[in-house]
Specification:
Blueprint: E1 4-8, H1 12-24, E2 28-32, H2 38-53, E3 59-62, E4 73-76, H3 88-109, E5 114-117, H4 122-133, E6 140-142, H5 144-160, E7 167-168, E8 171-172, E9 180-181, E10 187-188, E11 191-192, H6 199-210, H7 212-220, H8 227-241, E12 246-255, E13 261-272, E14 275-279, H9 286-304
Helix pairs in contact: 1-2, 1-8, 3-4, 5-6, 5-8
């Protein structure tokens, strides 16, 4: 029996995530959105492409969360983009409402599923999703660290003129301006990054990573990144469905690890069929600890702005 993955939100990120899952042939996909006709049309387009990809998987579109029943993984991309005149707090409250609604609905129909949260502000939304689902925290995971690490890898590869496949990076903390790229744990085919780049240039690449999403928004003028976010979500889906036990930086629940409790923030985790199966603690120096705790404090402050139900 084939796996079933539901993607909540049929915008650019959601639809591209669905495409990557189908192209890999690893699961049937349900694409959900509140906009009538949009998920149905995109799912039909994907289904018609399947024969050209030589895969035996299906796609269906729906406006009813009931159709997501029996999903093994649920990817949540639904939410509002920030619009002119909308404060970050407005966005936070609006998307918290969306997350609560879709997570409660899908958790009811797929009680054994694993959630991957993409909606921003991602660390806070992952916490809201966990509370709304009633699931064990290991079955609710945020995508941000995978994307942040991919951006850091890309910028390093571009700078050094090497393949990004040979770059291994680690990014900790919240997904946003206060993320913590870790050059001490970054290597190029095993060579420490500090042996290949001057400190000043490394700092510039770290800053570019922190502003990676904003850089794309400024270039597009309207809209935001979706290829890399979708590829990040897909990598997590694949790792879970195939039980690959990949060590990936994801927003996972911390219960004392890194000196933090009761938050979802980016840390290296072993990702497998049961979700975030193990949090890996690495030793941090004083500067790294300070940056990490500044980042986690920012996530905690965001959560304080969301009223409890």
């Amino acid at each position: 029996m084939k796996a079933k993955v539901s993607v909540i939100g049929a915008g650019h990120v959601g639809a591209t995530t669905a495409q990557l899952i189908m192209q890999a042939g690893i699961a049937d996909v349900v694409l959900y959105d509140i906009a009538e006709g949009v998920p149905q049309g995109k799912a039909l387009d994907l289904a018609e492409a399947a024969s050209l990809w030589n895969v035996s998987v299906t796609a269906s579109g729906t406006n009813n969360l009931r159709d997501t029943a029996g999903s093994e993984v649920i990817v949540v991309t639904a939410g509002f983009p920030r619009k002119p005149g909308m404060s970050r707090d407005d966005l936070l409250l609006a998307n918290a409402k969306v997350i609560r609604e879709v997570v409660r609905g899908t958790a009811e129909y797929s009680p054994a599923s694993i959630f991957i949260i993409v909606t921003n502000p991602m660390d806070a939304m992952t916490f809201i999703a966990w509370k709304s689902s009633g699931f064990e925290p290991q079955r609710v995971i945020g995508m941000g660290g995978v994307l942040d690490s991919a951006r850091f890898r890309t910028f390093i590869a571009m700078e050094l003129g090497v393949s990004p496949e040979d770059v291994e990076t680690l990014v900790l903390g919240g997904h946003g301006d206060l993320m913590v790229p870790m050059p001490r744990f970054t290597t190029v085919k095993g060579i420490p990054l500090r042996e290949l780049l001057e400190e000043k240039r490394m700092t510039e690449l770290i800053d570019r990573t922190r502003n990676g999403g904003a850089e794309i928004v400024s270039l597009l003028k309207t809209g935001s990144a979706y290829y890399a976010p979708a590829a990040s979500a897909f990598q997590m889906v694949k790792t879970i469905l195939l039980d690959e036990k990949r060590l990936l930086p994801c927003a996972a629940y911390l219960d004392g690890e890194y000196g933090v409790s009761g938050l979802f923030v980016g840390v290296p985790v072993v990702l497998g069929r049961k979700g975030a199966e193990k949090v890996i603690e690495v030793g941090l120096d004083r500067e790294e600890k300070d940056a990490f705790h500044k980042s986690t404090s920012s996530v905690r402050e965001l959560l304080k702005k969301i009223p409890e139900e």
